[in-house]
Design goal:
468 residues, alpha/beta, Rossmann fold, Elongation Factor Tu (Ef-tu), domain 3, 6-stranded mixed β-sheet, 33% helix
């Protein structure tokens, strides 16, 4: 094997089952697969889960690489093809893939109990360290306990980082920028403003404009300061449109008014027909579902912009699973749609017409809101639909791509979530599908994002969020 400055990465099974393209993501470094990893991939290939599909995909990648090769070529290491297109700007792979072709002796210390799969991988990594003294051998695993055991016995272990969309969730794009106090002194000289219908526009030039992206909201912190949306950026010149103010009852959306600046910006995006994809991040109680649903009802029932609202979410339970649910697809999904029902109660509260009037309104809304399961989305195309993906932080990037690409002409996709509440194993704030979409779509003229920062439920909920 090569003992130059390249590193040799030993991959755990969970890395490949989490990201089947992992073997293409180590650039110029070499990869080593123990035989027990291939055994685990084989054991997990059956089933319809995401992990099982990934195991089958890894096997297909390896099969493609091994076509027509000899035993001598396998022993010398297979060149990893550089044609895979999922690296997103990273250097193409130039390393080699090694399989375990013989038994490695002198592994784990005698005092380490058990002979489980993790211990076998750990033992082979230690043997590899002794066999390759000039190479830096690194064990890559998503299993925290295996990484802890590796550190104890002197093996360098790392988490798998190549699936991260961003390095740190704290630097995630928020969709909002505050204008500095001297903004107009520096940018007001060549400013031009005009009106088109009921909309006010500004043309601004200067260094700040060069850093903006389309559909970012900019505002002044003062009470009477400007709130505007960047519509286009050309070099150091930007075109701004004054944001609509949805805080007053006169401009309410299905009876809902914005309670803070971020909610107002979110309603601007949700009500804009030019925006095809909206992502809303925020803590519990910040109004994500209520705003999305109110905007959907207003555009579906009042403006006839969409045929119906489709709402879906990942069915990950908070506690113990209650087992199989009876009924149709919609009836099975209803227990997961408590957020939809709670928000519909808010949106349909009215004393006009009494109980009969409320019942009639609820029946009308239910006919225009369809609850769908993610499991049956593949292959579908939604035309002129308003699609709400709730709890989107529990989706993998691959699942998110499969869902967003369901949108046909005239449809709008709204992704809601809180990346601090991820329930799916192996997903983190920096690797989940919601972060992936926010990061990849920033700057596209037909998408927008807002991070809601304040809960608006009640004084009890606000205090509990801070104190508990």
């Amino acid at each position: 094997m090569k003992a130059a400055t390249r590193r040799l990465f030993v991959l755990d099974t969970n890395v490949l089952m989490h990201d089947p393209t992992a073997i293409f993501r180590f650039e110029e470094h070499d990869i080593y697969l123990p035989m027990v990893v291939l055994e685990e991939l084989d054991a997990n290939k059956k089933g319809l889960s995401e992990a099982s599909r990934n195991a089958r995909q890894v096997s297909r990648f390896l099969d493609d690489m091994m076509r027509g090769v000899t035993k001598e070529q396998i022993d010398a290491g297979l060149a990893i093809p550089g044609s895979y297109s999922g690296n997103h700007g990273k250097k193409p792979p130039a390393g080699r893939l090694f399989f375990q072709t013989r038994e490695l002796s002198g592994g784990l210390p005698a005092g380490l109990p058990g002979v489980g799969v993790d211990n076998l991988i750990l033992g082979q990594t230690m043997s590899l360290q002794r066999q390759e003294p000039r190479a830096r051998v690194v064990l890559v695993s998503k299993d925290i306990n295996l990484r802890i055991k590796a550190a104890i016995v002197g093996v360098h272990a790392e988490d798998y980082y190549s699936d991260k969309t961003i390095e740190d969730a704290d630097v995630l794009y928020t969709g909002v920028e505050t204008l500095p106090g001297d903004f107009w002194e520096r940018h007001g000289k060549d400013m031009r403003s005009w009106k088109e219908g009921d909309r006010t526009w500004y043309q601004i030039s200067g260094p700040a404009a060069a850093s903006w992206r389309p559909n970012v909201f900019v505002y002044e912190a003062s009470a009477q300061g400007i709130e505007a949306m960047v519509r286009a950026v050309d070099g150091e010149s930007a075109k701004l449109e004054l944001a609509r103010d949805f805080r007053s009852e006169r401009h309410s959306v299905w009876g809902i008014t914005a309670r803070n600046r971020e909610q107002n910006f979110a309603l601007n995006l949700l009500m804009d027909p030019e925006i095809d994809c909206v992502t809303l991040l925020g803590p519990a109680g910040s109004g994500k579902t209520l705003l999305a649903l109110a905007a959907g009802l207003a555009q579906t029932l009042e403006r006839n912009r969409y045929v119906e609202i489709i709402m879906t979410r990942v069915t990950v339970p908070l506690g113990e699973d209650i087992g199989f649910l009876p009924g149709t697809e919609e009836e099975k999904m209803e227990p997961w749609m408590g957020a939809l029902m709670d928000n519909l109660e808010v949106l349909t509260r009215s004393d006009e017409g009494g109980n009969w009037g409320r019942a009639a309104t609820n029946d009308l809304l239910r006919n225009r809101i369809k609850i769908r399961s993610l499991n049956f989305m593949r292959g579908r195309t939604f035309l002129n639909r308003y699609i709400i993906l709730d709890e989107a932080q529990n989706l993998t990037p691959k699942q998110m791509k499969a869902l967003v690409t369901r949108a046909g002409p005239g449809s709008k996709v709204v992704c809601l979530g809180n990346i601090a509440q991820i329930d799916t194993p192996y997903l983190t704030e920096t690797t989940c599908g919601l972060t992936y979409v926010v990061n990849r779509f920033q700057g596209w003229p037909h998408s927008g994002h807002i991070t809601l920062v304040r809960g608006e439920r009640s004084r009890l909920a606000d205090f509990a969020s801070d104190a508990l």
